[in-house]
Design a protein that fits this description.
By secondary structure, the protein is mainly alpha-helical. Helices cover 75% and strands 0% of the residues.
């Protein structure tokens, strides 16, 4: 139960972070006076969509549903983020941060994969010491 709750809070945190980035992108769009490789409106929509998706998944996990979706969604999220990097990072500065971003991606995927598999296992009652949840 505690593991599932912590996992849900992580997803709700990701939801809030993505929603905030999306809202800020829409707020900043009229202020940016230069041509960008991707419009801030499009990026804002992308972040808001992921924010809503993480919120829905976080609430479902909090209520004991959709535990098996955590790991695939985490991997899909990172795949989508890296596709944006590969296709739209134009500046040398953005590309210089790829090493750091790769380490953070690996950490994110390792933690969510480990917690996701552990939560599914505990939910099924396979984990020793964890009560079977229904």
């Amino acid at each position: 139960m505690k593991l599932r709750r912590n996992l849900a809070w992580i997803m709700l945190g990701l939801s809030a972070a993505n929603a905030l980035r999306g809202a800020l992108a829409w707020q900043l769009d009229p202020l940016v006076g230069m041509s960008l490789s991707v419009s801030l409106v499009a990026m804002g929509a992308w972040y808001l969509a992921w924010g809503l998706g993480w919120a829905a998944l976080g609430l479902a996990v909090l209520h004991g549903r959709a535990l098996r979706a955590v790991v695939p969604v985490a991997w899909l999220y990172q795949l989508a983020a890296w596709l944006l990097h590969w296709f739209y990072d134009r500046s040398e500065y953005a590309r210089a941060l790829w090493g750091r971003d790769a380490l953070l991606t690996l950490l994110f995927l390792a933690l969510l994969t480990w917690w996701g598999v552990k939560a599914v296992s505990a939910h099924r009652g396979d984990e020793p010491g964890e009560p079977l949840e229904k």
